[in-house]
Each structure stands twice: as structure tokens, then as C-alpha cells.
Amino acid sequence: MNQFTEARILETSNAPVFEFSSNHHVNIDQILDGLKKAIPESAYFKTSLLGDIIKPGDYVLLITPIDNEAPDGRMILPQQMAIRDVLDNKAINIVLKEDQVENFIKNSGIKPRIAITDSQVFIK
After folding, report:
1. Is the domain 59-121 a CATH 1.10.3720.10 member?
2. CA 114 to CA 88: how far, in whole Å?
């Protein structure tokens, strides 16, 4: 890398510049140290949306209105994130549309630990 290239990189970024060869592994320790410093510490710790509310084996009722903005056959990202978080916490997802909740509660005998929904369902 020439000085001009390094100067241009430094103009647009405050990231350190290292010469590196994947063929000869030149400066590999510098590269690894630079990457470790560049990754925010928060990336090392997974945060849980529900981890302090639910425990393994809990039933979690997710009331998921079908959003007009969601592509056909897909759930919106917050719904996906909630489902994944329940699974990561070893709890049990029960995913229903808002018009199925009353029948489920009456007939299943299951008492969910928590019900999570979108604010548009509060009216119903």
C-alpha cells in the first residue's frame, strides 16, 4: 500500500490501517487485535427481550395480528424476534391471531405466563 492510499483511508475513517497478506500471514496478530478493538463490547453479550420475565417451560402467548405491511406468508421482524427470544429462553411459544385468543383461553386449559401483543390488539 502506498502512502497516498493510506492517507485517503485515514481521511475517511479513523480505523487503523494495516498491511496484510493472506498468503504469508504478515501482521496477522495486528489484524486480530484491530478486529477485537473494533467490535463493540455489546456484541459479545446477547441481550434478551424476555429473559428476566420468563423461565424455561413457561407458556408465552404471542398475539400476532397479520400486518398489512408484512409480505404474504411472512411475519414482521418484531414478531420473529419475540418468537426467537422465547425459544432461546427455553419457553414455549403459543402464537395466535387476535381472533383466536378467546377460544384458546376457554378451551385449552393452558394459562400463559405472559401475553405479548401489538398495541392495535388492545382495542379488541
Report:
1. no
2. 16
Q: What angle do CA 93, 98, 99 make, to 5 degrees?
A: 120
Q: Which amino acid is at 111?
A: K
Q: Where in the chain is the domain with CATH 3.40.50.11420?
A: 59-121
- DSSP symbols for the chain: --HHHHHHHHHH--S-----BTTTTBTHHHHHHHHHHHS-GGGGS---SSTTT--TT-EEEEE----TTSPTT---HHHHHHHHHHHHTT-EEEEE-GGGHHHHHHHH----SEEEE-GGGTT-
Q: What is the pLDDT of residues 85-97, one digit of tens each?
A: 999 999 999 999 9
Per residue in 35-82, pLDDT (tens digit) is 888 777 766 666 788 999 999 999 999 998 776 666 677 788 888 999
Q: What distance in Å separates the CA atoms of residue 117 and residue 82, rounded to the nearest whole number?
A: 10
